[in-house]
Amino acid sequence: MIKTHQPNKYMIEALLFLSYVLFGMSWQATALFLPDIREQMGVNSTAELSWITNVVSISRIIGTFLASTILIKLGTKKAVSLSMLLMSIGAFAGLVNSYFMLLLVRFIAGLGSSLIIAFFAPLVFELFEPKERPIVNGMNSVALNLGMAIIAFGLGAMMSLFNNNWQHVLLTISVGSLIIFILWLVYGTDTKPAVAKSTKSYTIIDGLKEPFNWLYALTYAGTLSFYLILLTFYSHANIPAVKYIFLMGIVGTIFGIIVAQKTYYRRPILQISGAVQILAIIGVHSQTWGWFDSQILVNISALMIGFFLFFPMTSLVLFAQERKGATAENLGPTFSLFWSISYLISAFAPYIFGMLVDNFNGNYSVAFVFSTIASSSFLIGAMIMKETKAPKNAS
To answer: What are the TM regions of this chain, as residue ranges (predicted)?
Structure first.
């Protein structure tokens, strides 16, 4: 397949990547500001507070489901422009004074981010050669985590700069998104993807009929549920090592890219990662459950969670991109469904977790059992899914 507009592919990738890093910064900053939001906006319960995350999940169900259609109908430049514009509206999070308006702003910004995340895989497939895809896929998978790590380690300095005003911090981050949007208007371009030339369309309806798409999404749904719970609540659950999860996610991604480039099969990487994820999550919870009174164990487990949540992500994306007959056209609906189904299921997780905390008078023990069980989907799915690449010795 002949690639078009190749000189612009690095600019396209850079702007998409940076836009998602900034969204990650906004997401994590909002999570860390939950006590301030709860106090200033009169939020009464942990379950109610979980809507900070839930509205983003709901917006992503909608956005990712529509993403492939939007990309085909509008073309790359207009579709990405729309997503970046919506993300820029997040600037109003620093200006509103009611919880409802904050949730509305978060919903709109989340809608924009959901389009970006669903655009990643088909655009990478269209723009980059197979040998480049592990690196680009890995970068895209860690963009959100990188933004969160920046906030986890740099929020103190930002708060000092803005006189401890959390709303000004959110406003500044969203202004960064607005700058990326303007740069995209100047430098962004249409990729003229192969889907426009196809004689046979592959739609979301076609994708819904494929068992692979369902199993692929369900495999990730539980891990995503755990991650959303972690982002929303774990920094307030007496687990101070949580910020190192973001840092180790970056390390895990780098190693994941290297391993994906040097290995042929993807399924073993997914299986090993799924098993270690569960063990590490149990380790993080062990102190709260009263199994081991060891902060060292909790800290080491947190580092392992961060590493093994992101180590398999490059291989997970390649798992679909390397299927026989994969094209930019059918990857659009595949990844739209991957994200929309995953978020449809995981949208309920933070609310259930918060409700369990409320029902047990602020004790996280039972809620941690729920998040541990949810995380097991990755290992179960990796055991069930069949390798998508042909055997090495196949002619």
So the answer is: 12-31, 51-72, 79-101, 107-128, 140-162, 168-187, 214-235, 241-260, 272-290, 296-319, 331-353, 365-385
